[in-house]
Specification:
5-stranded mixed sheet; binds FE2/S2 (inorganic) cluster; about 35% helix; 5 strands
């Protein structure tokens, strides 16, 4: 748990609307089932990570002990317990991405963002970290930035993507070599 904590937390209007939709999916006496969407809503409102007050708030809303919610938070890697950059870059380094050159993607992140993963750099613009398979192995190597995938990367295309974020230029999501869906790389257009 990060030592950087906001004092308190509660859902804003947008989050309240999302929470209502999530809760409606479960019976009234099973509202704890909404713990994962509630944590996701809290994390998005809180700038991409879950502070202790935000986790306490979720526990309170769902009438759960804090420790039960904390167990969920620490089990799933999709929840961050430390601040992340506005652009949170997750670099897959599992075997298929590794075989296709993920070390070059890590190198580009180290050069452009920060030598150390999880550092929030460039005035809060970025942080990066290595993660396990993100499920897009067919277009390896790949990264996820916030909710979007960038695939078929190499050192240069990764640097271009990161530099475009610094320069506030539009990005092309998905395959960077024009591959359609998961076609063989030789069929890229
Ligand atoms: S190994 Fe990288 S997306 Fe599956």
């Amino acid at each position: 748990m990060s030592s950087i904590q906001n004092d308190n937390f509660s859902f804003d209007e947008k989050s309240q609307g999302l929470a209502k939709i999530a809760l409606a999916k479960y019976p009234n006496d099973r509202k704890q089932s909404a713990v994962m969407p509630f944590l996701d809503i809290a994390q998005r409102q809180n700038g991409g990570w879950l502070s202790q007050p935000s986790i306490e708030y979720v526990a309170e809303q769902l009438e759960m002990p804090f420790i039960k919610v904390w167990e969920v938070v620490t089990f799933y890697t999709m929840y961050n317990t430390k601040p992340v950059g506005k652009n949170f870059v997750q670099v897959c380094t599992t075997t298929p991405c590794w075989l296709r050159g993920s070390e070059n993607i890590v190198k580009a992140c180290k050069e452009i963002i920060s030598e150390n993963q999880c550092d929030v750099a460039h005035n809060n613009l970025f942080s990066w970290m290595e993660v396990e398979c993100l499920g897009a192995c067919v277009n390896a190597p790949m990264i996820q930035i916030n909710d979007d995938f960038y695939e078929d990367l190499d050192y240069e295309s990764t640097k271009n993507i990161l530099q475009s974020l610094i320069d506030n230029k539009p990005l092309k999501i998905g395959s960077q070599i024009g591959r359609l869906g998961s076609r063989g790389a030789n069929n890229a257009q």
